[in-house]
Design brief:
Order of helices and strands: HEHEHEHEHEHEEHEHEHHEEHHHH
Largest sheet: 8 strands, parallel
CATH superfamily of the largest domain: Aldolase class I
Radius of gyration: 18 Å
CATH class of the largest domain: Alpha Beta
């Protein structure tokens, strides 16, 4: 079944489910698998240098003739070369985050690229809309990885954006099932972005140790920390405890940077170091009980969405 709304029309997709472009998880295998089943797959460029990103884009183009995109965190040093590569290889969709949407949106749109920006609050959504983006991802603080300091939940954020944002809104953070997707739609979203479930999927490039740690996580197993640097939600492990204790003891941003070091998320997510790695994942990790294929995840969420939507229409 094809779904007709602005998100599907914007991305030329059948199902308004977007797979988040997560560092160390979202390579060409995952992105192409999601796009093939009718959603929108995203390559997570934040963990890639330009040569690696080129390989993933080319392989994704070879694996599917369906639409896919690239997620670009604007804080990364390779951003200019990444954009040049995206233009060279003809990528049609770019999701930006962690930076000002005004800096690159016009350049990308002038080259026929659809631009979506991830926001954590109304004021950022309004700025993104004014910058000319085509859609917004409204990401509540339930989401894994880098997040908003104000800790606005997805439920509240969607209501803050209602009647204030004219372009399509995609809900993110705490989206696990068709029921949560339908709830987001009831609050004005026209699509959902899912991260944590895809992070442990068969096609995710994350380490098996990381995937199993997510599956084993119980309620309350994640926390938003490093708020004086750039807030990040992660699993509670030895590294998390070290950071949390430092924060509680009044560590400065510079002292936290020393503790963080370099390559901490790679160590945890990609290399599987469950003690010293930064294990970025969302609150809904406690609901994940097994590994599934990307195809099964999309189809399960979509089918439940349709069933619950039909059920509520009868009430």
């Amino acid at each position: 079944m094809n779904y007709n709304n602005r998100v599907c029309a914007l991305f030329d997709i059948k199902i308004p489910i977007i797979q988040a472009g997560m560092v160390w998880c979202s390579g060409w295998k995952l992105a192409s698998a999601v796009s093939e089943v009718g959603g929108l797959g995203l390559i997570g460029a934040g963990s890639m240098n330009t040569d690696v990103l080129r390989q993933h884009i080319v392989k994704c183009q070879q694996a599917t003739n369906k639409t896919f995109g690239v997620n670009l965190p604007l804080i990364y040093s390779d951003i200019e070369s990444h954009i040049g590569l995206i233009l060279e290889l003809g990528v049609k969709i770019v999701f930006t985050s962690a930076g000002s949407p005004s800096k690159y949106t016009s350049q990308l749109k002038q080259n026929g690229i659809k631009v979506v920006h991830v926001v954590s609050g109304l004021k950022y959504a309004l700025k993104a809309q004014d910058a000319g983006v085509d859609a917004i991802v409204a990401e509540g603080f339930e989401a894994g990885g880098h997040n908003g300091r104000d800790e606005t939940t997805t439920l509240c954020l969607l209501q803050l954006l209602a009647n204030k944002i004219d372009i399509p809104v995609i809900a993110a953070g705490g989206i696990y099932s068709g029921r949560s997707m339908l709830a987001a739609f009831a609050l004005g979203a026209e699509g959902v972005q899912i991260g944590s479930r895809f992070a442990v999927s068969s096609e995710s490039s994350a380490h098996d140790n990381f995937k199993q740690a997510v599956i084993d996580t119980e309620e309350g197993g994640t926390d938003l920390t490093l708020k004086s640097l750039m807030p990040v939600r992660m699993l509670k492990n030895e590294f998390y405890t070290k950071v949390k204790n430092a924060e509680m003891n009044g560590a400065s941003a510079e002292e936290l940077k020393i503790i963080l070091g370099k390559g901490r998320s790679k160590k945890g997510i990609f290399e599987g170091d469950l003690k010293e790695g930064e294990l970025e994942i969302g609150q809904i990790s406690s609901l994940i009980e097994n590994r599934q294929s990307a195809k099964d995840i999309v189809e399960e969420v979509w089918q439940e969405f349709l069933e619950r939507k039909a059920y509520l229409s009868l009430l």
